[in-house]
Amino acid sequence: MKKVVLVTGANSGIGLALCERLLSHDTEGLLLCLACRNVQRAQAARAALLASHPAAQVDLLWEDGLLVFPLLRHFQKEFATHLSLRLYNRLDYLYLNAGIMPNPEFDAKAFFRGLFSSKVITMFATGDGILTQKDGVTPDGLQQVFATNLFGHFLLIRELEPVLCQEGRTSQLVWTSSSNANRSAFSLEDIQHRRGTQPYSSSKYATDLLSLSLNQHYNKQGLYSSVVSPGFVMTNLTFGILPSFPAFLWTLLMPVFWLIRVFTNTFTLTPYNGSEALLWLFRQKPESLDPYAKYHSLTSGLGNNYTQPHKMDITFETSESLYIKLLQLESDTRKKLAETQENG
To answer: 16, 28, 167, 266 - which has most CB atoms within 10 Å?
Structure first.
């Protein structure tokens, strides 16, 4: 029986690179599901994957539900329909990769100060000190970054429990986190980061916390969770940091980035390199992985890719507190949905 793999945010960047590498690793042994918001880009991604892997089985699903809760239920039903039509009733790997960093503001003065400081590599690798974001609000009244990067994925896991947790086999969750996941950006009193200016960093730190708690609650049911950092990768998310920055200037900066990579292995630069740890986890037995570790995609100065675990700056107590708050928010959201449906 084929392994069923679902990748959110699969139409570009790291998600698409991962799909290409998964099919190169095992074309005929996978049923690959691309979960995307943009229909046209999803179709283009599927066509590109099938062009290079004609024997592959690639399905498309729509993940609008990561932003709007009612649509998530439709997404879950659509996924279940796909499985039942193909006589599959399983999900072996769920890559929780979709993410946004909306409306970033760039502090030019801090950037140029950082260029001549000892923190220059950290600044480039994480955006620390030079980036703030203006968050939006979803139709459900949730903070947009929180809803997309964390809560929508949490709801998806909850909805897909029947196919993720099955007796006699294991399934794996793999979260795309970030080296920008900082404890200082996150607060249990404000898990949606309504009052801060670093919603992306907060959501990624919350991702690290949630993964730990999910292992506590689901390992006995055969479901395991891991976290990955792709490193500094040139994707649409990166280009969006400086929306007015001409594309050719990014090209001119690439030699600088290659030079920096001689001194730090976190500059993976390409989506292919950034997906290294995601693919590495596909090859591991989930029971052997450390729930406190974040698995980093790394690239040497000579261009060699490898994966290395680093202990996360998290505590079990904080992760459990977040998990309880997310369960309560899920309950409140379901009640609001039911009331809206009753009122017509």
So the answer is: 16
Q: Is residue 130 part of a domain?
A: no
- The answer to the question of residue 114 being in a domain is no
User: DSSP alpha helices (H): ranges in 147-198?
Assistant: 152-159, 161-164
> What pLDDT score was predicted for residue 69?
57
Q: Which domain holds residue 62?
A: 3-101+137-231+270-342
The C-alpha atoms of residue 189 and residue 115 are separated, in whole angstroms, by: 35
Residues 80-100 have a mean pLDDT of: 82
Could you tell me the CATH number of the domain that includes residue 308?
Answer: 3.40.50.720
Q: Is the Cβ–Cβ distance between 102 and 203 less than 8 Å?
A: no
* Count, residues in the chain: 344
Q: Which of 5-9, 53-57, 224-228, 252-256 has the lowest mean pLDDT?
A: 252-256
169, amino acid identity: R
Please give the tally of structural domains in the chain: 1
Pairing of β 293-299 and β 305-311: antiparallel
Strand partners, 5: 32, 93
Contact yes or no for 104/133 (Cβ under 8 A)? yes
* Residue 106 covered by a domain: no
Domain assignment present for residue 166? The answer is yes
Q: Which residue has the higher pLDDT, 312 or 77?
A: 312
Dihedral angle of Cα 265, 270, 276, 282, to the nearest 10 degrees = 160
Q: Look at residue 135 and tell me whether its pLDDT is greater than 60.
A: yes
Write down the catalytic residue from 88, 93, 95, 200: 200
CA distance 156 to 64: 11
88 labelled catalytic: no
